[in-house]
TrEMBL record:
<dbReference type="GO" id="GO:0004029">
    <property type="term" value="F:aldehyde dehydrogenase (NAD+) activity"/>
</dbReference>
<feature type="domain" description="Aldehyde dehydrogenase">
    <location>
        <begin position="23"/>
        <end position="472"/>
    </location>
</feature>
<dbReference type="InterPro" id="IPR015590">
    <property type="entry name" value="Aldehyde_DH_dom"/>
</dbReference>
<dbReference type="InterPro" id="IPR029510">
    <property type="entry name" value="Ald_DH_CS_GLU"/>
</dbReference>
<dbReference type="InterPro" id="IPR016161">
    <property type="entry name" value="Ald_DH/histidinol_DH"/>
</dbReference>
<dbReference type="Pfam" id="PF00171">
    <property type="entry name" value="Aldedh"/>
</dbReference>
<keyword id="KW-0560">Oxidoreductase</keyword>
<comment type="similarity">
    <text>Belongs to the aldehyde dehydrogenase family.</text>
</comment>
<feature type="active site">
    <location>
        <position position="249"/>
    </location>
</feature>
<protein>
    <recommendedName>
        <fullName>aldehyde dehydrogenase (NAD(+))</fullName>
        <ecNumber>1.2.1.3</ecNumber>
    </recommendedName>
</protein>
<dbReference type="InterPro" id="IPR044086">
    <property type="entry name" value="LUC3-like"/>
</dbReference>
<dbReference type="InterPro" id="IPR016163">
    <property type="entry name" value="Ald_DH_C"/>
</dbReference>
<dbReference type="InterPro" id="IPR016162">
    <property type="entry name" value="Ald_DH_N"/>
</dbReference>
Amino acid sequence: MATIKIDTTKYPGNIINNAFSPTSETRHSINPSTGEPLYEVPVSTKSDVDAAVKHARAAFKSWSTTSFSERSKLLIVYASAIEANREELEKLLVLEQGKPLTLAKSELDMTLTWLRAFATMEVKDEVLDSNSERTVLQTFPPIGVCCGIVPWNWPVLLNVGKVGPALITGNTIIIKPSPFTPYCDLKLGEIGMSVFPPGVFQVVSGGDDLGPMLTEHPGIDKVSFTGSIATGKKVMESCARTLKRVTLELGGNDPAIICEDVEIDKIVPKLATLAFLNSGQICMLVKRFYIHEKIYDRFRDAMVEFTKTIKTGDGFEPDVLVGPIQNSMQFEKVKDMYAEIDKCSWTTAFSGGVREASKGYFITPAIIDNPPEDSRIVTEEPFGPIVPLLKWSDENDAIERANSGETGLGASVWTKDLARGEKIARQLSAGSVWVNSHFDVAPNVPFGGHKWSGIGTEWGIAGLKSYCNSRSLWIWKNVM
C-alpha cells in the first residue's frame, strides 16, 4: 500500500468525490500539549456541502446495489491501507488530540479490528412467516446518504465506527470531523480516495457552523452524532425538520459499584486507569466510585498510592498516562470543576491541579473523598482527570444512587460473587454494564445509552440495522 505524506503547512482541501476540493478560507487547530498551531485545513461553505451531498446521492445509486462481498472486499482493502499508514496517523493523532502515543497505537489497533469485523457483518433478510400460502420477509435496504459527526476525543476509531457500518450496509457517507481534531479524519478520507468509488466516502472540514449545514440538509437521510448531550439535543432538533434518521451517542457519568469482597490490590490499578485514561476524556470511563464502607478507607488509600505513580505529560514522552486536556474550552470547564474543591470545601484524598507554568492544557489527577451526593463532581460529568469516591452500606441504596441522574451510558459492578454481581448489574440503567470490568467494547456488540446518554445504538448487527430501513416483503404463492 502507498503511504501518505503529511504537509505540515496546509492540507489540500476537503475530500469530495475522490478529489481534493480546496476552500477559499482555512483554519487551524492547536497542539494541546504546546499551544502551538498545527497546519491549515479547509473551512467548508454551504456550496461545499451541497457538492458533497450531490455526489453522495449519485454514488448511492450504484453503491447500494453493489454486492455485500464487493463492499466487504473494499473495507478490507481500506483497513490494509490504513495499516500501511498507521505510524504517521498515530503521530498525527498525538499532535492533534494530545493522547499518549501508547493510547494512539491502541486506537489504531481498534480501528483496524473494527473495520475488519464490519467487513464480515452482513445484515440478512429475516423470515417472519412462511407457509404454503405465503412468505413474509423483513428486509433491510440502506437508508441513503449518511452523515457521521465525529468527536475530538477518539477521532480515528469513532470515524471508522460510522464509516464501516454505513458502507457495508450500502449507504454513502459524509464525515464531519471535530474542528478541534480535523487532521486524522481528513487523512482517513484521503486514504479512502484510492479504495472506494467516487462519492461513496467523503470528508468535509470546517468550523462550528458546518454541523447545522449538514444536519439541516434535505439531501442527507441519516445523521450519526457522537458528542455532548447539549449538542446532541440541537442535532436532534435540526434533524427533525426533515425527519432524518438519527443516532445519538452522548455523554455519561458512569458509576462503579465496589462490593466488600473484592481484592483491592488487584482491581485498583485497573479502576484508576479507567478513570484517568485519556485525561478522563472518554464518555465511558468510570466517573463515580461507590465503595462499600467496610473497605472504603483501604480502597481509597490504595487508589491514592497508585495515582501517585501516574505520569502526566506530552503524549510523546515515555510512560505518560495523562496527556493534556484537548482544547481550551474543555480546559476551562475542567478548571472550573477543580475550583469547586476549595469553593465547596471538598476533602481531597489526592490533590491534583493545573500546571500553570505549562503552555499546554495540563491538569493532574484529583480524587475527592466522599463528597455530598448532590455535589457537582457527583452529578456532572467533568470529562477530566477528577473523580469522587463515595461510601455505601445498603445494596439497594447503592443501586439507586448509581441510577440517579439523567445519563445512563455505562456502569460496572465489582465482586467475587458473580451471581450477586449479575443481579446488581441487571438493575443498573445503562446501555453497557460490566461485572468485574469497565469500558469493554467490541465491533460486534451494540453500543449506546439510556436516558440522556443517547438514542439508538452503534455497532453490532443492531447498530448496522440503524443504517437501514425496515421493509416488510409479502410474497403470496399460488395466486396466479
